Amino acid sequence: MSATADEPFLQAKGVAKSFAGIMAVHHVDIAVAAGERVGLIGPNGAGKTTLFNCLLGVVPVDRGVVQLAGEDVTRLPIHLRARRGLGRTFQRIELFAEATVREHLLIAERTRRGDGALWKDLLGRGRPKADEIERCDHILGLLGLAELADAPSEHLSLGQGRLLEVGRALMTEPRLLLLDEPSSGLDHDETVDLGRTLRDAQIDRGFGVLLVEHDVEFVSDFTDRCLVLDAGRLIAEGPTGEVLASDAVREAYLGTMGTVA
Amino acid sequence: MLLGASAGSDLLRALVQGTPAGTVYALLALGLVLTYKTSGVFNLALGAQAYVSAALYFQARVSWGWPIIPALLVSVFVLAPALGFVLERLVFRHLRSASAVAKLVVTIGLAVALPAIFDLALGFHSIAGQTPVGIIPGGATVFYNPFGVYALSRNELMAVGVAASAMAGLAVLFRYTTVGLHMRAVVESPRMTELNGIRSDRVSSFSWALSSLFAGMAGVLIAPRFNTLAAPDFFNLVVIAIAAAAIGMLVSLPRTFAGGLGLGLLIAVFQTFLPRWSDSLPWLATVRENLTPAMPFVVLFAVLVLWPAIRRSRAASDPLAGVEPPPPAPAATTRSRGLTVATRVFAVVFFTVTGLVVFFRADASWMFLVTQAVILSLIFLSITVITGLAGEISLCQGTFAAIGAFASFQLVTHLGMSVLLAALVGAVIAAVVGAVLSLPVLRLGGIWLSIATLAFAYFFDSVMVKLSWVGGGKQALAEGTRLPRPLLGPFNMNDNRTFLGLSIILLLIVAFAVVRIREGTVGQTLRALRGSELGAQSIGISPARARITAFAISAFIAGIGGALLAIQQQNVNYSSNFSPFASLFWLVLVVSLGSRTVEGAMQAGAAFGLFDAVLLKGAVIGWLLRSPARIPSVFPLSGTWRFVLFGLGALQFARHPEGLVENGKRGATEAVDRWLAARRERSPVVERTTEPETAA
Ligand SMILES: Nc1ncnc2c1ncn2[C@@H]1O[C@H](COP(=O)(O)OP(=O)(O)OP(=O)(O)O)[C@@H](O)[C@H]1O
Ligand SMILES: [Mg+2]
């Protein structure tokens, strides 16, 4: 089965996950088409990160099916899903210690090309090639990190670190990018910057986005469609503006989280 | 039916027989869990602590003629808790946020150093060779036969009684005292975070003292089972304790106790029935004699690989995971370009001069030592790959080297293969073994991975080596595992100088390859995985594939080095070169000098090969004076000091996890850079250096 234009790239059906008897995700159906920008909101502990982890293969699902471009990937490990076009960033930043900004992208590029045989290293062909560096620098330019290309990732601010995670994910040519609270830990200006940069990159590369975010302003600016998760259940879905205005959402989400926005 | 009845009573006998040992294993296992949960330290030195108490008790009884009670009080109830307390205060309290690797290395260092230190201080060697005494009069001569199947000695009954009382005491402590309640809260919680809000320092000191008390008790109780008192036997006990702790998942104390007891019983049952099974199964017969001493390791390996809960506990394997500070960047990335070139030039000049001196002036014994140091450096590069690059602590590098050596021996002896080709094939075999071993082991992760490699090393040591297709069997016992030196065209390697040349060339080739791997895709991939496994997976890196590659490369390097060492000595000399203990020693040496760099491995090789001769025996001075007889007696050091210094090196490692060499280099480069900067611009420097500090 191959993906047609209107068939969603990511499709999850009846995904359920519980921890020690507590249902974190409760029979959730979700579908995101390539190039689409979708928000996923919900109060703390609603199961957003857990749902991400199920989609990405970080935790095994108890029940349900995850498909990428029509292919069942429910049993595949994380890295094989990544190679099928599922990119991500992390709520708690996951950069490679001791690597520079450019090295983060170079290793992603190398992995994407599947060009890492041991014998090539031994023959001295393991060093980055000119076209690889060029591609990295293009992405770094897109994200405004060009100045920092040779800086160790430990020297980055949190906002820059988030962008670097986005850049690293972009190097793998994802068809869908899962962003887990990119604005957490950033102040308002940084968040606006990040949103703008993400949007530029998205328009440039045409990947889809599934965005988990507490910042309602960010969500309403960035996404066209929005899903609402509460206590592990999908309680609302529709165009972002309508969903954010609906009563059910206000009650479940803004009722408890009203101060966030 | 007669057979069935006898099997039944044999089983009962085995169970009775296994109980005393089982209760002692349980005690040790409890000690292991206590410190692991309260300070995140997986204490491989617990056996050394048990040994120290047992030896002091024995010494006091036999050499000093003390009565039982005072000897017991001093060795078990004073020395043991005090030792635990001191270790916690001086060492492990400061390692709270150190990496699991750093902690493990420190405990290995202590496992080696503690017996040596106490031997030097109290003269334990005076009791060597004598049979230990129990803690009750007539312990080994008076027997009781409660079930009519097996006569338990008084010593054994005592062991059961004391261990059971200790467990009961622990239960009371946990139920009725404040510190006990706190300890229990910490020990039984799945994560260490529960430590918040509890006076963790007190809990931690108390746990260490209690753990050490249990170890001391276990040591004194188990000692009469051995013919002589030797520290390595006590290390083996810890291996069983680890298996028991693994069954208890490092959380449940009752299950840990049951695990220890159960393993004692299981081992006794195997000892009883194995001879019988091997009557009908011929392949079992060949390994039978060796399987009995190997039981602990087989059991540990089986528990680790098969026990489902452990495989699932990847994340929980370090209770303090997540608070590890990132390692500091290697000095090379912080220092200025000119300085890098300068140190390179210096190193090249230094090694060239030393090399030339050794090449043209050294006598045969010096040549031998230097060659050995070169080959060891090559072997140590395997640790640079697996630990420095992949971040895994493998405790079986000596075994990989031994596989290379034995394989070459077999190929040369039985197939008449040329030696160098055999060494290469041997290294390939080692690489295959490394890759195959890594399959089950890699699922474990963290500290369990290291423990599984340790179990493998001991399994190889006690079973595989004895097989004739590995170690040569009886024939090898009679004739030795001999290997010839190669003839390579016009070069006859029987000449030591030529062989040294070959070793240096091979070392340079391997070092060059390691640098290329480090800088190439494989190295980058491993570095990414080390930096963040989740992050690496999220861009499509397969952790298993990368780590299997690392294991195979590392085993290959170790294998070729092992073969080379055997060729140099023209004999495999397994027990002096490649024992599991050597693996431990190598690892600690390399990581404490620097596992991240090629220089670190070379310095470790030099230290290992030349330390005894140069420092302890003053050989350099003898050589300078052109006569060993004129070595001044300024070095009245016994070989034991090597172990003490080794332990101190391991402690030092905990403070500078990047390795002593790296640390020294960083200090030196910083000092030089500062000095250069100060010279360049005299007065503004003062203001410049203070400014950023106040800003930050
Ligand atoms: N590994 C785990 N073990 C046990 N429980 C877990 C685990 N991960 C998540 N949970 C539980 O599952 C529920 C959902 O958590 P999750 O992190 O998915 O929520 P979230 O929507 O991402 O919240 P936040 O907005 O705070 O990030 C919570 O009750 C959490 O305690
Ligand atoms: Mg979350």
Describe this structure in words.
The complex is a heterodimer of chains A (261) and B (696). Chain A has ten helices and ten strands. Chain A has helices at residues 48-56, 78-83, 101-113, 118-122, 130-143, 158-171, 188-205, 216-222, 240-245, 247-257; strands at 10-19, 22-32, 37-41, 63-68, 71-72, 86-88, 176-180, 208-212, 225-230, 233-239. In chain A, the strands form two sheets. A six-stranded mixed β-sheet of chain A has the order 6-7-8-3-9-10, sandwiched between helices. Chain A has a four-stranded antiparallel β-sheet with strand order 2-1-4-5, covered by helices on one side. In chain A, helix 7 (188-205) links the parallel strand 7 and strand 8. The relative contact order of chain A is 0.17. Chain B is mainly α and 696 residues long. Chain B folds into two domains: 21-271, ABC transporter involved in vitamin B12 uptake, BtuC (Orthogonal Bundle); 372-670, no CATH class. Chain B has 30 helices and four strands. The chains are: A alpha/beta (261), B mainly alpha (696). Chain A binds chain B through residues 56, 58, 77-80, 82-83, 87-88, 90, 94-99, 103, 106-108, 110-112, 115-118, 120-122, 124-127, 152, 154, 165, 168-169, 171-172, and chain B through 326-327, 329, 333, 513, 516-517, 519-525, 527-528, 530-532, 534-543, 549, 553. Bound molecules: adenosine-5'-triphosphate and magnesium ion (MG).
Kindly list the characteristics that best describe this protein.
heterodimer, A: 261 residues, alpha/beta, Rossmann fold, 2 domains, six-stranded mixed β-sheet, 10 helices, 39% helix, disordered C terminus, B: 696 residues, mainly alpha, ABC transporter involved in vitamin B12 uptake, BtuC, binds magnesium ion
Helix content of chain A: 25-40%
What gap, in angstroms, lies between the N and C termini of chain A?
42 Å
Strand content of chain A: 15-25%
Structural class, judged by helices and strands of chain A? Answer: alpha/beta
Q: Per the principal axes of the C-alpha atoms, what is the gross shape of chain A?
A: globular
Bound molecules: adenosine-5'-triphosphate, magnesium ion
Distance between the termini of chain B: 84 Å
The CATH architecture assignment of the largest domain in chain A turns out to be 3-Layer(aba) Sandwich
> What would CATH call the class of the largest domain in chain A?
Alpha Beta
Rg calculated over all Cα atoms of chain B: 27 Å
- At the fourth level of CATH, the homologous superfamily of the largest domain in chain A is P-loop containing nucleotide triphosphate hydrolases
